[in-house]
Amino acid sequence: MKSKTLKLTKGFRIAFANARAQAAEMVIPVGDSEGGPGNEHRAADQWLFVLDGKGVAVVGGRRVALRSGTLLLIEKGEEHEIRNTGRAHLRTLVLYAPPAYTQTGARLSRGRP
To answer: In 3D, which of 19, 91, 21 has the Cα closest to residue 55?
Structure first.
């Protein structure tokens, strides 16, 4: 078993992973965004759960409103961007299956260590 208290402060941090999946926290400040054209995970699905804040996800050219409680599945290979459109930090929990990043946050080329 693994357990961790998330910081949920500005930035992207890997919480922990095993060989099958990975958890991370992503906090986007007001007016900022993560991703954009060409941002995709070739071998990993990304599940994004909004803990707090408001924003918009642009996935494959389609827009989805984000707010507390929104769960979004971004399938492997889908280009995406997450934007904070609210008045406070956009705080999210992100799960990747299989892992998409190293523990230090470097992107894995094929979605696995």
So the answer is: 91
67-107 pLDDT, tens digit per residue, is: 999 999 999 999 999 999 999 999 999 999 999 998 888 88
pLDDT of residue 112: 47
Residue 82: strand pairing partners: 34, 57
Query: How far is Cα 86 from Cα 105, in angstroms, rounded to an integer?
Result: 26
Q: Which architecture characterizes domain 11-20+33-93 according to CATH? A: Sandwich (2.60)
Average per-residue pLDDT in the chain?
A: 93
Place of tokens 């402060």: 9
Structure tokens that stand for 9 in this block: 């402060």
18's enclosing H/E stretch is none
Measured CA to CA, the distance from residue 84 to residue 112 in angstroms comes to: 29
